[in-house]
Amino acid sequence: MRRELTDCWAGVINAGGAVVPMDCPLPPVTPATLEPAMERIAAQLSPQRLRLLRATVGGSLAGWLLLRREQHPLVAHCGVVNHVQTHVGFRGLGVGTALMRRAARIAREEMGLERLQLTARDGLGLDAFYRRAGWREVGRWPGALRVAPGDDRDEILMSLEL
């Protein structure tokens, strides 16, 4: 399963996706480049703290995301959605939408969370996707993401009340 996840992840990054881990070089990347980040994720998985949700189509991995509970007592009622990605071969089929619905249901019903948050890179249309899923923009970090020299993008802060 880890190989499927890193293959998907590399494909998404190389297609312009915004899910580049902190210790990973900018694209192009290989699945091997992402293995250390995937190992860290796998080591932290826990039903109440960090969940990896997968979507499959015809038995093949079509997408995945991470759902994390914040640990500090001041924000323990909140969760964070990270690494939302749809395999490039399955885009346009509703995979991302299904993953987001499932994440909200699990966060509310199984993890007891009251709110979710995420950040998205401006310029990819991601904010419109999340708005259609019920999320609202609550702020921006202007120019926070440098995709390339001379190409700075806002980091969009989004929230979903469960």
TrEMBL record:
SUPFAM superfamilies according to UniProt: Acyl-CoA N-acyltransferases (Nat)
Keywords, sorted A to Z: Transferase
Highest taxon of the lineage: Bacteria
InterPro entries: Acyl_CoA_acyltransferase, GNAT_dom
UniProt domain N-acetyltransferase: residue ranges: 1-162
The keyword Transferase is assigned to this record: yes
Keyword Lipid biosynthesis recorded: no
Record GO terms (molecular function): acyltransferase activity, transferring groups other than amino-acyl groups
Any Pfam family the entry gives: Acetyltransf_1
Official protein name in the record: GNAT family N-acetyltransferase
